[in-house]
Design a protein that fits this description.
- The complex is a heterodimer of chains A (330) and B (253).
- Chain A is 78% helix and 0% strand.
- Chain A is built from twelve helices and no strands.
- In chain B, a hairpin with a 5-residue loop joins strand 1 and strand 2 (9-13).
- Chain B starts with a strand and ends with a helix.
- A five-stranded antiparallel sheet of chain B has the order 1-2-3-5-4.
- Chain B contains twelve helices and five strands.
- Chain B has helices spanning 27-55, 60-85, 91-95, 110-118, 120-123, 130-138, 145-150, 180-189, 192-203, 210-227, 232-235, 240-252; strands at residues 2-3, 9-13, 19-24, 98-102, 152-156.
- With 253 residues, chain B is α+β, with helices and mostly antiparallel strands.
- Classes of the chains: A mainly alpha (330), B alpha+beta (253).
- At the A-B interface, helix 1, helix 2, helix 3, helix 8 and helix 11 of A face strand 3, helix 2, helix 4, helix 7 and helix 9 of B.
């Protein structure tokens, strides 16, 4: 069959032009919302152009007209067939106060798995350091942790001011950004079927366990708690939440005992992943501020009891926040 | 419904049964777009550093803190912000006419943008997108790890303008029309494929070099002349191209 091209084009050209104009308007202003009447008209134009494409491509016709119509239909397709609700103006406060605990609660199993992996690393690190103290440079490859804990404590307590004094703001900014980067990497490593996340969680546990054993057996438990608790009670759960997100991603990749398709599994976890990452970033900003401004003060300037108490209060509030609010919202 | 062979196209069949395809962006084009984006990020950070540097006069520590945070925010938020605002495009992608789409051809969700941008840190490893580039080459839809996790694809939208259809309008007297029986026979003998080829040759005449154009229309004219011979006086003085245009006019009217 031969189509009368000029007549066909003359009859349909206005439709194509109108559809193209609407698409250009939508693409230029993504926040634009069409009225119901406009949407109906847009849908009509899309269907008409689709029908033209079907008609013209059936006859292996002029390729440039086909390509032109294809591009119009492809651009309109996403607008017409998108059924997922788009929230262009998410309220960050609401997302943090309600969405974050709710997502955390929904995916709590992955969190407990992250805790278990880090605990295993902690026990491993502690036991290895206790059994063979010569492994310390390997387990704790940080210059300020290489020496004798008692000597460090004596040095810190001799100082009249914080070791970060004069550079608290930049130190705080460094800690925040560094920890958020580490969290992003911990999450992203989950793409390797969760293995990357497992390794990083375990490694963080090893460091934590080695430090704990090193200071506790050197008789510096109070210093250790006073130093770590104020920021650690926020920072460590935040890293665990990054692990939770990474394990969720890994779980979606593996799809164990899940009958949904690969793509659907990833779609199912995506919104929660983003909320968890946003929430942990906020926590790490707080942890960075506390670590730079509070954790670096020691006795006699800052009593350890006060620091430990502050850390415990933070931990209690965090637990209440992640459990109570999340349950209420969900 | 989606299906894709090992080509650079992703075909989509709509619920209405219409088939269309997206041209997938190649890893090289994507790398070029990323290079432009990196240059933009560097330029942004340099500008911010200059502005924040002024703050250093008042408090060097606060200025340094601002610099650290600004660098982090710009490097992480650039891709997320631009892709969200421009619906799947960064500056580099806009310049190279690339766009990120949901792999079903639908609009992007915010979570998809965040995930594909955060997983960039793994795709970057060990350097210069080695992991991401390799995965792109190996996957059917040219996806890096971030795209796989976020269910996204990157397509290329080359400029497609409406073809110059005025070329088809006969603007001269068509001597073939005066022979009604021969014209009817011509319409009967010409196959749809040959008719499409004729229209294509007319519409794309400007794309050919002069010599090639002459040769093409000569071959087409000779073919049609053999198919249905018109009286010599009818086609006397008519160029090969005009003859083909006259044939197209006869076929389609």
């Amino acid at each position: 069959m031969i189509v009368d091209v000029p007549r066909f084009v003359a009859a349909e050209r206005d439709t194509w032009k109108e559809l193209e104009t609407i698409l250009e308007r939508i693409e230029a202003d993504p926040s634009r919302r069409l009225s119901v009447a406009d949407l109906r008209h847009f849908h009509y134009l899309y269907q008409k152009t689709s029908a033209d494409l079907a008609r013209i491509s059936t006859f292996a016709f002029e390729p440039r007209i086909c390509r032109y119509l294809e591009s119009l239909v492809a651009r309109a397709y996403g607008e017409v067939h998108e059924t997922r609700e788009t929230k262009r103006s998410a309220r960050l406060g609401t997302l943090f106060w309600y969405g974050f605990p709710a997502a955390f609660q929904r995916r709590i199993a992955a969190f407990w798995l992250a805790v278990a992996i880090m605990m295993a690393g902690t026990i491993f690190g502690g036991v290895v350091l206790r059994v063979d103290p010569t492994t310390k440079p390997i387990l704790l490859p940080f210059s300020h942790l290489q020496g004798d804990p008692a000597e460090r404590v004596a040095h810190e307590e001799k100082a009249k001011r914080s070791s970060a004094a004069g550079s608290q703001s930049s130190f705080s900014a460094f800690l925040m950004t560094h920890n958020i980067r580490v969290s992003i990497f911990t999450f992203s490593s989950g793409i390797a079927a969760g293995l990357g996340t497992i390794v990083l969680l375990f490694y963080n546990g090893v460091i934590l366990g080695a430090i704990t054993v090193d200071y506790v057996f050197a008789g510096q438990t109070r210093f250790l708690l006073g130093w770590l608790l104020p920021h650690g009670v926020i920072e460590i759960p935040a890293i665990l939440i990054a692990g939770q997100a990474g394990l969720l991603l890994g779980g979606a990749i593996v799809g164990w005992k899940d009958r949904a398709s690969f793509r659907q599994r990833l779609r199912n976890v995506a919104p929660d992943l983003v909320v968890l990452l946003f929430g942990l970033a906020v926590l790490l900003v707080w942890a960075g501020v506390i670590e730079a401004s509070f954790s670096q003060w020691h006795e006699p300037v800052m009593p350890y009891g006060l620091k430990i108490g502050f850390g415990l209060v933070e931990l209690t509030l965090l637990v209440l926040f992640l459990s109570k609010r999340g349950v209420r919202q969900s | 419904m989606l299906f894709a062979a090992r080509t650079n196209r992703l075909q989509v069949r709509t619920p209405e049964g219409i088939l269309f395809s997206f041209l997938l962006a190649s890893p090289v084009t994507r790398f070029l777009a990323v290079s432009i984006d990196v240059a933009c990020v560097i330029a942004l950070i340099s500008s911010l550093r200059t502005v924040v540097g002024l703050l250093g006069i008042l408090d060097p520590d606060v200025a340094m803190a601002f610099q650290i945070v600004a660098y982090f925010v710009v490097s992480v938020a650039y891709g997320i912000g631009t892709e969200w605002y421009w619906r799947g495009q960064t500056i580099g992608k806009r310049l190279l006419r690339l766009r990120v789409l949901d792999e079903r051809g639908l609009k992007l969700e915010f979570s998809q943008i965040v995930i594909r941008n955060l997983l960039r840190c793994v795709d970057l490893l060990p350097a210069f997108y080695a992991v991401g580039g390799t995965v792109c080459l190996l996957t059917r839809d040219t996806q890096r790890l971030g795209d796989i996790a976020a269910n996204t694809i990157v397509v290329r939208n080359p400029p497609i303008l409406e073809p110059d259809l005025d070329q088809l309008r006969p603007d001269k007297w068509n001597s073939l029309r005066s022979h009604l029986h021969l014209s009817a026979r011509l319409r009967q003998c010409v196959t749809p494929a040959m008719a499409a080829l004729t229209v294509d040759a007319i519409l794309r005449r400007e794309e050919f070099a002069s010599a090639e154009r002459l040769r093409l229309f000569n071959e087409l004219a000779q073919y049609f002349k053999t198919l249905v011979p018109y009286p010599a006086e009818t086609i006397e003085g008519v160029t090969d191209e005009q003859y083909v245009r006259n044939v197209a006019d006869v076929i389609f009217r």
